[in-house]
Design a protein that fits this description.
heterodimer, A: about 270 residues, alpha+beta, 2 domains, three-stranded mixed beta sheet, two-stranded antiparallel ribbon, 7 helices, elongated, disordered C terminus, B: about 400 residues, mainly alpha, Formate dehydrogenase/DMSO reductase fold, 12 helices, globular, disordered N terminus
Chain lengths: ~270, ~400
């Protein structure tokens, strides 16, 4: 089975139980709160906050203000840009869904942080050489999955906004909900195809960009062009070696012939 | 102080009296470079001991800052002087450029060292820098860059080694390296082509974030072409410096290099414009956004202006103006690399802004000062300028 999570933004009450459960289960330190002008805290994802509920107030056509809650955590892409970018395959996609991190392979180049279209991997900026800074992100509670349990965030969710299960079944469930309440939901499952598909998917009653999701990703994997270029590299290398060797041979021959023709035989070598 | 003659056999391996300056009373520029180098060393130690928070402004939205986005990319690009000059001399048979080859290769080595040192301070675990040799990830551009940089830095050191052998009178080593010159030049050209372009491929992984004026599937080609045109420009800049500092007759060799630049710049410009028109994005540069201004500044000051300047024979033969044009090319390339790696990105609206910390800048300046100091001393100690019979390729 391919593990997946479905987040139903319409059902979310913004209780942040998932955020707290994530911290507790993964034993992450508390982050000092900051007044950001809303209930959202902490302001950003970080090495100690792998799941963050984003609070946003949007004005509706009738002038009323509506609170919406976006879920920011690893999307566990099918074709993750972070794993494709990683020069050591420290980040890698597992067959049953989660994108996992092997610290023993990581040298901390942070290319994954650049490549990720969702800005998810974070870095332990305050760690020194001995403690060692590592990349941190949601690991789908892989240790819970192994015991047949749900991820901590899903387990905690009281409103049913988070669902865990097989990806195909969750897509079918999401379709069903959209069909059942067509005047509530936007007719789209975010993550079904975005960036080649993700294991964390969203359905929503407000446009997805209001939830803080990028809407410019397209349906192809992010790393498509880079992988095409890297696939061509060995071929280019072989061609270059052959081409340059041939080129040098011709140049040298022409120079020799030129030297003979002009009558000054240069002593080479 | 006259430079020592090249009768090297009788000379001791190291003689402090031969330093280019009196050790007890060094000239002010040398002192300044040395102090700046100390700053870089200090920042390096502070980074290792405390992490990033105190010495940098990098954050989770800007995972790459000045050290990788500027030092590493620019250092390797400017290091292209080595392979372009070696190619011109050994493959194209441009014999008149031969006196510049060793200098260009030394600059190449220092450029790559700048990149490697910046990587060392920037990596979370610098002691693991050789891990790409063990764990392979061929689909990652950074993996390819890592391999090529390791191999090419070795090639550069071999290419430069005749100067060392000559200085220390190692005749046999000189003869051995003599036979390897052409394979080294071919290997160096191949490796350079691969990793200069792969540095562009690095940013193929951010199609959604990099501005479309820069992002194109041809990004590796543009990185390669710009490395090729910046090579001669770097040689012009450094040779003009050395003319003064070391009393060498180098600037008379530069007009043919300067003559190549309008063609190389023009080719880059042509492909860039054609690509933008092909992608129907040509008009984007006149949109009046911040990125469009950055792009216009980069292309007009860093490519078009020097191209037009060097099209004039009078400027190609005028040391100062030629120097200015070459400097424009170098600055234009630096600007391009920073645009691609840091500035011309769309960030989420809640992203933490980034401007380099004073110590990040301090490390960068100190590193380049240290490498300038190394160049200064090496150029005095080693036969860096001038043609040598032993550099000629074996038959």
């Amino acid at each position: 089975m391919s593990h997946a999570i479905l987040f139903d933004a319409h059902l979310c009450t913004g209780c942040r139980g998932c955020q707290v459960a994530c911290k507790q289960w993964n034993d992450r330190k508390a982050v000092k709160t900051e007044n950001t002008g809303s209930y959202q805290n902490p302001p950003h994802l970080s090495a100690d906050t792998w799941l963050l509920m984003k609070f946003k107030e949007i004005e509706q056509p009738d002038g009323k203000v509506q609170f919406v809650f976006g879920r920011r955590a690893c999307m566990h892409c099918h074709h993750p840009a972070c794993a494709s970018a990683c020069p050591l395959e420290a980040l890698h996609k597992t067959e049953d869904g989660p994108v996992l991190y092997r610290a023993d392979r990581c040298f901390g180049c942070r290319y994954c942080m650049l490549a990720c279209p969702f800005e998810i991997p974070t870095f332990e900026w305050d760690q020194n050489e001995i403690e060692g800074p590592w990349i941190r992100k949601c690991n789908f509670c892989i240790d819970r999955l192994g015991e047949g349990k749900q991820p901590a965030c899903v387990h905690t969710c009281v409103s049913g906004a988070l669902k865990h299960g097989d990806r195909e079944e969750l897509i079918a469930y999401a379709r069903e909900r959209i069909q059942k309440y067509p005047d509530i939901y936007i007719d789209h499952i975010y993550g079904e195809h975005e960036a080649g598909g993700t294991s964390v998917m969203y359905i929503s009653h407000v446009p997805f960009e209001e939830l803080g999701l990028p809407t410019n990703l397209g349906d192809e994997p992010i790393s498509e062009n880079a992988e095409a270029a890297m696939f061509a590299t060995p071929i280019a290398a072989a061609g270059l070696i052959a081409g340059l060797t041939g080129f040098y041979w011709i140049m040298k021959r022409r120079m020799k012939l030129g030297a003979h023709a002009s009558g000054d035989s240069e002593d080479q070598g | 102080m006259a430079r020592a003659e090249v009768k090297t056999k009788q000379r001791p391996w190291l003689n402090l009296n031969e330093l280019p300056f009196p050790l007890r009373r060094p000239p002010i520029p040398v002192v300044a470079l040395f102090l700046l180098t100390l700053v870089a060393v200090g920042v390096f130690i502070a980074r290792l001991m405390t992490g990033w928070t105190l010495v940098t402004n990098m954050n989770d939205n800007y995972g790459w800052g000045l050290w990788k986005g500027f030092n590493t990319l620019v250092g390797i690009a400017l290091g292209a002087s080595g392979f372009t000059t070696a190619f011109a001399v050994y493959m194209l048979g441009q014999e008149r450029l031969r006196p510049l080859a060793r200098m260009a290769i030394l600059v190449g080595i220092l450029g790559y060292f700048s990149s490697v040192f910046s990587l060392l301070i920037d990596l979370g675990h610098p002691e693991r820098i050789v891990l790409p040799i063990i764990y392979w990830a061929p689909e990652s551009p950074l993996f390819e860059v890592a391999w090529c940089v390791i191999l090419y830095t070795t090639v550069l050191i071999f290419e430069f080694s005749p100067s060392l052998f000559e200085r220390f009178g190692l005749k046999r080593a000189e003869r051995v390296i003599h036979f390897a010159v052409i394979p080294l030049v071919i290997g160096g050209t191949v490796l350079s082509t691969l990793h200069q372009s792969s540095l562009g491929s690095l940013f193929l992984n951010v199609p959604d974030q990099l501005d479309k004026l820069w992002y194109t599937p041809l990004l590796p080609l543009f990185f390669y072409l710009s490395a090729v045109y910046v090579g001669p420009a770097v040689v012009i800049v450094v040779a003009t410096f050395c003319q003064k500092a070391f009393n060498q007759k180098l600037t008379q060799l530069l007009p043919p290099l300067a003559a190549a630049l309008p063609f190389l710049l023009g080719f880059y410009l042509f492909i860039k414009i054609a690509e933008l028109i092909g992608a129907r994005e040509f008009g984007v540069m006149f949109d009046g956004t911040r990125n469009s201004y950055l792009f216009l500044a980069e292309i007009s000051l860093g490519v078009i202006l020097p191209m037009l300047m060097l099209a004039f024979k009078r400027i190609r033969y005028n040391t100062s103006w030629r120097f200015v044009a070459a400097l424009l090319v170098v600055f234009g390339l630096m600007f391009n690399r920073v645009n691609v790696s840091i500035i011309a990105w769309s960030r989420p609206e809640d992203a933490i802004p980034y401007f380099p910390h004073i110590l990040e800048i301090g490390f960068t300046v100190g590193l380049w000062a240290g490498l300038a100091l190394v160049f200064y001393v090496a150029a005095h100690y080693l036969p860096v300028f001038g043609p040598r019979a032993s550099d000629k390729p074996a038959d």
